[in-house]
Structures are given as structure tokens and as C-alpha cells.
Amino acid sequence: MEKQVNPWHALWALCIGFFMILVDSTIVAVANPAIMEDLGTDINKVVWVTSAYLLAYAVPLLVTGRLGDRFGPKNLYMIGLVLFTGASLWCGLSGSVEMLIVARAFQGLGAAMMTPQTMAVITRTFAPNKRGAAMGLWGAVAGVATLVGPLAGGVLVDNLGWEWIFIVNVPVGVIAFLLAWKLVPSLPTSEHKFDIPGVILSAAGMFLLVFGIQEGSSYDWNGFVWSLIGAGVVLLAVFVFYQSRNKNEPLLPLELFKDRNFSLANVAITAMGFAITSMVLPLMFYTQAVRGLSPTQSALLLVPMAVLTGIFAPIIGKLVDKTHPRYIAGTGFLLFAVALGWLALVMSPDVAIWELLLPIGLIGFANACIWSPLAATATHNLPPMQAGAGAGVYNTTRQVGAVLGSAAIGALITARLAAQGLTGGSSEAGVGHLPEFVREPFSTAMSESIWLPAGVLLIGFVASVCFARPLRGDAHDDAMAVSAEARRETSLRD
Fold it and tell me: What are the transmembrane regions (predicted)?
């Protein structure tokens, strides 16, 4: 490090950029009906506004962390921030849905450059006994962002137009850049070999899989669509095989998955990312198109979820070290699935608003039971030298789940609307303009779509109840020593 700085000042500077990224992940869902109406597009295309962002965010994450090690986390964070801010302005000035999708992809790339660097700076600037407090603040920022995103989106859409959910990032990005330049330290760099074939295989595989799933309805699920999906699965399988044979620095270190809890936590967080992303879209379409709520009013429905998550997350976080993670995380996944099923059952044209708030509040408590136990369990048993790689993989699988959730829910909504005799076009899903006779079938389509994330959460439930008790105290130290000795012996043999 070039000079001694207060790590808390650096953390607060990084939190601004991190907050902006997370807000942008949730703010668009509220604006989707307005974007559809203004740009004259349909549900299938508008979903790509989110999917393009998530896809461009997820795919590079494994490599951008290493780029930060090579060129310095501060430098890569600031480059990513400039790209994200510039792409935000581009989004706001877009005159077509196609241009908006492209701009959102560049936004996602900027976010992918920023996210790993923030974690790296925390790990490298805070003493081990202070990292817990730092990560607590980090988690609190994430919780606030889930509330601010929809609310800010609603207020901006109602008063200024959907363009301003992106343009507002520009002054925030400028402030974040200046603070990062001044307060974030320049850290020592290290050489890394980059797994270029791994990057190409994973990117191509993910794109083909997501594109095939999301565009399936547009092509009536013909042979072309299934060939895209099949090609994506094959490329991802080739990617995993290549990673197993890469003896240098694989993009995906498969040895991490030898730890049972790490593997199961990645399955669970993929299900969580899928559910969180896919549940919001049908809910927002239902509240605005069927109930005639404004974007702001729709966003306010999510307040109980964010508030209860914020209240219970610190309490449950303290229990993580004392209680077997399967009990906390398993309960969270089960309650989340039950809450979504409950929500699906009450989503009718005439249901009282308070009946919607009850399952939404339960989702907030369930979230508090999931995020912290999963994150703590994922990397707990990993040796220190693998903790960074483990965190990178964990974050990537969460984003992959989000991408698949966005693609799948878009395809399912389109299919369920068609089953109800609706096309899913902008005229049928406008903001509060549904004719009386359309409300019932539209509500049915949205409620049926909610069952998808509910079902996927059961996969997370099964994974979480299979957790082994994390190693504690001396046992953990002994395991780390054995692991280090095994690596040393392997190195000597090689």
C-alpha cells in the first residue's frame, strides 16, 4: 500500500458505487410497464432490459477479480465506474428498446468490473478482527438498496419519466469516482495468467442458454430454439471439463467444490438469485396493469419485505455461529417458497391490498434467514488462500441464477399470457389501462408465473438441509493445516 489510510473511509467511498449497482438491479422492474408503453415494445423484449444487464454482469465476474489483482483493484474499480456511469447516460438517452438493451449490457460490464474489487479492498485493508463489522455495513447497504431501488424507481417514473432512473446515476457516479480516487488506497498487484478459453466458453455457453430460454416463446419453441439451448449446455459442459484439465490458473477452480458446504451453498444461492429476480416482474405487472397502482405505489408494497429483512438480518446473523446452518437457511427457503405460493393464491383483480402485504412481509423475514447463513457457510471451511476465489465463484453463481431467473420468467409470462388468450403486447400490459374483461386472465397469468420461483426455492431448501456442521475452532485449524500440508506435498511432487 502506498500510504496508510483509514479503511472505513475507503469502505464508505466504495459503498456509494456498490449501492448504485444494486439499486440499478432492482429499479428497472418498477419501470418496465412505462418503458413498454413509451417505446412501443412487448414483455418479451422489455425483459431483455434486465437480462442483458444481468448477463453482462455475471459472465465476466470470474475474470474481473483477477484483473483487479493484476492491475490493482482501485484502478479496475474506477474504470468500471466510468463505464457504468457513461452507460447509464446512454440508457437514459435511448430512443428504442434495442438501444436500451445494448446500453444496459455495457452497464452490466461496468458493474462486473466494480463488484470483485470492492470485496478485495475490504479483505486487504481491514484487520481480520474488523472484517465482520465491515461486512456488516456492506450487508446493510445491500438491504437499503433493495428498498431504495423500487421506491426511487417509482418516484422518478411517476414524476420525471423512466429515463431518469438511469440519468440519476450520472451525478452519483461522478461523486463516487472522486471519493474513490481520493479515499481508496492503491494496493500491491500480482501477476496472473488469464484463462482466455475459459472466458470464451463460459460466455458463449451462458449467452446461448439464456437467449434460447428467453426467446423460446417468440420462436414457438421450435428446433432452432432447442438447438440454441442444447449448444449452450454443451459449451458449459466443455467449459467445466476444460477447467478440470487446466493446471495453471483455471477460471473456475473446481477443487473448491470438494467442500460439501461450498457446493451446496452455491446450489442454494443460485436458487435464491433465480427467485429474487423472477418474483418481482410478474408482481409489478400485476399491481400496475391490473390494480392500476402507480410505479411509486407498487414499490411501496415491497416496503414490508425490505424493513423486515433489515430488522431480522442482524439478529439472525448473530445466530449463524451458534446454530447449525441447515436449520436457519432451510427454514428461510421453506418460508420463502410458502410466501410466494401464498402470494400466487391471493393475486386476483379484487383482493385487498393488505392481503398482498402479508406474504410480502413473510418474504422479508425469510430473506433474513437465507443471505447471511449461506454466505457464512459457503466459505467457512475453505483455506484462507482459497477464500477469495470461493467468494468470486459464489457471487458468480448468484448472478447466473439471476440471469436464468430473468430469462425463464420472461418466457413463462409470455406463455401464460398466450394460454389466457393474451398476446403480452404493450397495449395489454400498459400502466393501469387494462379493460375490465382482461383483468382476470391477466391476473391469472401473473399468479401462475409466481409458482416458478416458488418451485425453484425448494431446490435451495433441499440443498440447505443437507449442510454439514461447519468446522469450528481447533477442528477448523487442524483441517486448514492438513489442507496446507497436502498442497505442499502436491507441489513438491509436481
Answer: 12-34, 46-64, 76-95, 134-152, 164-184, 196-213, 225-242, 263-286, 298-320, 327-345, 357-379, 450-468
